[in-house]
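Treating backbone geometry as a discrete language has practical consequences that deserve illustration. No coordinates are needed to read the tokens, only the vocabulary itself. For completeness, the protein is quoted in full, as a sequence line and a line of structure tokens:
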Amino acid sequence: MKRVYAIEEYCVGCRLCELACAVAHSKEKDFTNPYRIIRAYKREFPRPMPRALVEEQGPLSFSLQCRHCEDAPCVESCTTGAMHRDERGAVVVDTQKCVGCWSCVMVCEYGAIKRDLVNRKAVKCDLCPDREIPACVEICPNGALVYEER
């Protein structure tokens, strides 16, 4: 299965991956048009949430998102079955089933699952199922994110 991998040496911490992710999951969807990016951030409520987060540790920065673990503790801990694997093998959240218990957030050792407190749902990387390449990978100007099978 293809996954997103970060190459820390190339990341400059610009956070464009966060922005592209949030807009790709907004009503606007188009992160290539600056006007639409601003419209998504300024006019949508709730404001679109990125599924990726740039972490900075000393001189290194890198994008942190779900690793779609083979043995995913988040899937095992989900009492409603909202957290599951899709047909591609990606770990995804069915927001219709998610009750906001946050058990998945607590067991994720990478901190890759976030709480959407407005909608009371878990939010995480879904590898942009409607796109050929995830938005974060496509927008990264330095090639610090790659989408590949390893």
Summary: The mean pLDDT is 92.
